[in-house]
Amino acid sequence: RGGLYMFALLYTFLGIAIVADIFMNAIEVITSEEKEIMVMNEATGKAEARKEKVWNDTVANLSLMALGSSAPEILLSVIGVFPLGEEADALGPGTIVGSAAFNLLFITAICVVSPCPKSTSIAQFGVFCITAFFSVEAYLWLLFIIEFSTPEIIDLWEAVVTFLHFPLLIILAYGQDRSWDFRKVGRVSPEEVDEDGNVKPHVVRSKAAYRREAMRGLTAGKREKAADADGKLADIEEADSKPTGGATSDPYCIVRIGNKTFKTPWLKKNLNPRWDKSFSFEDVKESDTLLIEVMDHDELSADDFMGQAKVSLQGLETDKAMDMWIELLNKHNVPDGRGCVKLVLTLVNQSGSLTLQCEVCEGRDLIGLEQSNKYVDAMASSLGNRVRAGKAWFSKHKDVWQSMKLDWFDQFHNALTACGDKDEDGNDLPPSSFDLTMHFLTVFWKCFFALIPPPNYYGGWLAFMVALIFIGMITAIVGELASLFGCVVGLKDAVTAITFVALGTSLPDTFASRVAAISEEVADSAIGNVTGSNGVNVFLGIGIPWSICAIYAEFNDPFVARSCGFGLSVFVYCICATICLATLVARRKMCGGELGGNPTTAKMHGAFFVTMWLIYIVVSSLRSYDSIKNIWAYTSDAPDGDMYSDKCA
Q1: What is the Cα–Cα distance from 523 to 111, expressed in whole angstroms?
Q2: pLDDT(635) > 50
């Protein structure tokens, strides 16, 4: 029976890893939303438009990303307090502390050794110091309220203060990330500017990208090329694209052959627009003529004519692309300085039938028809936005579900397909024996979780909420299986939590951190997120369920948290965490970086971290079985036992 429960537990860990991958993908979609800001270019002294993420990377890592990587532990702790009024089990809090020890000691040990002989350092060291402080302070606070403040009783203010550490951590880390400069107009140093004076894009891979890469490699999922576009600059218009003399236009281009008509999007206030749109005219004849019209878009009135031109298909060679600049004429077909349009035309012969492929590239030196008036412009823009919003709402809800059906079908297709790795050129390789084996083991989970809506709809929030529900369902099963496994083999819930459950929920982060340590030139993605996640685990995984229980206890019996084994476990973790963090800082000074460097030194430090993790496991387990007596004076006459009752007791 023990073996069966162990297999079932491991199988549910695979399920949690797969659904957490989908959850992190939805979070990545949410946090990748961008907005346009003005940035001061110190090289040119001018403010320039730049696209920036709505979610600051530090805030995203400490909130949604931390929730994504720690969702099983947090939900296990929340589920464990129900039904209210009864003693909660030890799995939730024990898993949070055990996972914190595994993350900081074991994962850090792997990351220290992985990049050798390359040495990497944490770039945002100030943010790391803040998260490192909270990763220890969170557990010291936990020890204080359990053992000293109101021993074994959790008051409402203690639970609420525990939760309020979470926004405090985010505010301090965000302030440090911005160097405490919260001005809307940022500044760009000369080092961030290229030879042409343009702002260089800041490229960084997110934590979710590494986790997704690791999990798809483990479960024979569809691999991706390394993403390099988490942050992109906006396309900044050239100086000659600005309207001259105060007149401007909102141009778009119409191409027509007979009754077939195509239109490009209109571009606001641009006399040198770049459309780059391609259209295809089927079943054309060599005697046909292509008509090009450039129009000025108006919000409140009919669109205005800007120029026209004609191209005969008789002059085109078959199956050969022809670039041409075409001068625009007035309505009387007379050139009068209306600018020109660039087209790329290809006449394709398909089994005797001619198809014209027309690419409308750009316009140059178009005429300005509108004199700028801020009041009229504001009224027109407001009314136009409302009209477009109404049209978009109706068309979106019609098209979104059609498109979502296709994406949903792709999810099931990918779930049923065993995929191999990619070669250096990004080409797919056939699946290996390991890929086929893991696909066989995980195909049920992949098909089951393909029911989650695709993450690229509704800003990722729909997939976020549904995936969170799925994680809660599987986490509840994990809690029951872990308790039953402990009962069968004779392990207390506290020991099961800090060993099997903590390892099972932390393995995806282990693979992701190792990939980041090897691939990145800095150590932030590998270990910089570990400290933040450890603190968030306490603030959310302990703060939320304890607040619920404390509120309930205000009207009923006090909320009791028996602390015999748990208090010492937290105390040992705090000591090991402090030593580990001090060692990393020392490596930064003496070894040139927190990770890598001299292989021998790195292996020694890695072995040291693993040894501390084993010491934590042994000491915590011995205390759970009362082999180590309670070290806290006030509980000398208190009943021994675990922090919470065991379900099999």
Answers
A1: 9
A2: no
Look-up of token digits 């049209």? 391
3-state secondary structure of 227: coil
Look at residue 378 and give its three-state secondary structure. Answer: helix
- Quick: pLDDT tens for 141-169: 988 888 788 777 778 888 899 999 999 99
Q: Return the beta strands (E) in 478-626 as ranges.
A: 595-596
Integer Cα distance of 434 and 440 in angstroms = 10
Q: Note whether 584 and 592 are within 8 A (CB).
A: no
Residue listed under structure tokens 């020392």? 586
Quote the CA–CA distance of 433 and 264 in Å, as a whole number: 50
Query: What are the C-alpha distances in Å from 346 to residues 19, 317, 321?
Result: 47, 8, 4
Q: How far apart are CA 544 and CA 540, in angstroms?
A: 5
Q: Where are the beta strands (DSSP E) in 550-619?
A: 595-596
Q: How far is it, in rounded angstroms, from Cα 414 to Cα 221? A: 7
DSSP state of 272: S
Quote the CA–CA distance of 111 and 513 in Å, as a whole number: 7
Cβ–Cβ under 8 Å, residues 262 and 252: no
* Greatest C-alpha distance within the chain: 104
Structure tokens at 348: 């394709």
In sequence order, what are the residues at sequence separation of 6 or more whose Cβ sits closer than 8 angstroms to the Cβ of residue 230? Answer: 32, 53, 203, 204, 205, 206, 209
Contact indicator for 213, 512 with CB cutoff of 8 Å: yes
To the nearest 10°, the Cα dihedral for 40, 42, 46, 49? -40
Please report, for residues 257, 287, 294, the alpha-carbon distance to residue 325 in angstroms, rounded to integers and kept in the order given: 19, 21, 14
Q: Tell me: the pLDDT tens digits for 173-231?
A: 888 887 776 554 444 444 444 445 444 444 455 555 666 665 565 555 555 554 433 33
Cα(317)–Cα(453) distance, rounded to whole angstroms?
48
Does the pLDDT at position 405 exceed 70?
A: no
Distance CA 134, CA 117 (A): 31
Per DSSP, the three-state class of 103 is helix
Distance between CA 7 and CA 3 in Å, rounded?
A: 6
Q: Distance from CA of residue 542 to its chain's centroid?
A: 24
What pLDDT sits at residue 62?
84
Within a 10 A sphere around the Cβ of 618, how many other Cβ atoms?
13
Question: Are the C-beta atoms of residues 530 and 120 closer than 8 Å to each other?
Answer: no
Per residue in 424-455, is it b (16+ CB within 10 Å) or e — as a string?
eeeeeeebeeebeebbeebbebbeebbebbbb
Q: Which residues contact 624 (CB under 8 A, 6 or more apart)?
A: 492, 494, 495, 564, 565, 642
Strands (E), 240-391: 247-248, 251-257, 260-263, 274-284, 289-296, 304-312, 321-327, 340-350, 353-364, 370-371
Q: What average pLDDT is seen over the chain?
A: 78
